[in-house]
From TrEMBL:
This is Cytidylate kinase. HAMAP family: Cytidyl_kinase_type1. Its main location: cytoplasm. Signal peptide: none annotated. It comes from Paenibacillus solanacearum. Belongs to the cytidylate kinase family. Type 1 subfamily. InterPro entries: Cytidylate_kin (IPR003136), Cytidylate_kinase_dom (IPR011994). One of its GO terms (molecular function) is dCMP kinase activity. It is found in: Cytoplasm. It comes from the Bacteria. One of its GO terms (biological process) is pyrimidine nucleotide metabolic process. GO terms for cellular component: cytosol.
Length: 224
């Protein structure tokens, strides 16, 4: 099969990473989770103890760090300057700060260049917020995944409880946090979360994951 690129965008908890990973596996493509890259920068910013107003230092940090995404047994592993940060980039502290850090245009430029480099030889399924609209505007297949805030919060809640049964979080709190992250991602000036004009909209509120994967694979058939 000729190689092509697939861009999957959408708000938090729409199922992007699970779906993108499954599609990549089916096609034997490389999966790139761009949210993990923004999380990696945010983790480093917090590690360094930078204050929200230290934008220049954050930009320098993002420019100087090496982020590597490596396929692992149970999903993608993320390394920052050789250190495995796969788990620590998912903490509430990172999640609570990532939209602020990713609103900085210069940090987006650094990561966008890395993402474009990863997709250069095609055969990539990339998920994020601005992939179809900004990072890979020429991607052959573009999907915009969405679902109601309630359903997205319920999915995240189940995932979190499975990973850590005693986690101190309520569904209502998660729903509020997700809605706030959506708002910041949609309203930022630099490449906001938006559906590209040519992206196929899929609402996964009542759609099981295998059905969404099937629908995307069907769309990919037009590329063969
Ligand atoms: O996908 P995930 O929820 O891990 O993304 C975390 C955050 O990273 C998003 O809420 C958004 O602020 C930022 N992000 C972004 N552009 C992308 C991917 C993620 O701004 N392409």
């Amino acid at each position: 099969m000729e190689k092509f690129n697939i861009a999957i965008d959408g708000p938090a908890g729409a199922g992007k990473s699970t779906i993108a990973r499954l599609v990549a596996k089916e096609l034997d493509f490389i999966y790139v989770d761009t949210g993990a890259m923004y999380r990696a920068v945010t983790w480093k910013v917090l590690q360094e103890g930078l204050r929200p107003d230290q934008t220049e230092a954050m930009i320098a940090l993002a420019g100087g760090m090496e982020i590597r995404l490596v396929p692992g047994e149970n999903g993608q592993l993320v390394y920052v300057d050789g250190e495995d940060v796969t788990g620590v980039i998912r903490t509430p502290d990172v999640t609570g700060n990532v939209s602020r850090v990713s609103s900085i245009a210069e940090i987006r430029a650094v990561l966008t260049a890395k993402q474009q480099e990863l997709a250069k030889s095609k055969g990539v399924v990339m998920d994020g917020r601005d992939i179809g609209s900004h990072v890979l505007p020429d991607a052959e297949v573009k999907i915009f995944l969405t679902a109601s805030v309630r359903v997205r919060a319920e999915r995240r809640y189940r995932e979190m409880k499975e990973a850590q049964p005693d986690v101190d979080i309520t569904l209502e709190r998660l729903e509020r946090d997700i809605a706030e992250r959506d708002r910041m991602d949609q309203q930022r000036e630099a490449s906001p979360l938006v559906r590209a004009d040519d992206a196929v909209l899929m609402d996964t509120t009542d759609m099981p994951i295998p059905q969404v994967v099937e629908a995307i694979l069907e769309l990919c058939k037009t590329q063969v």
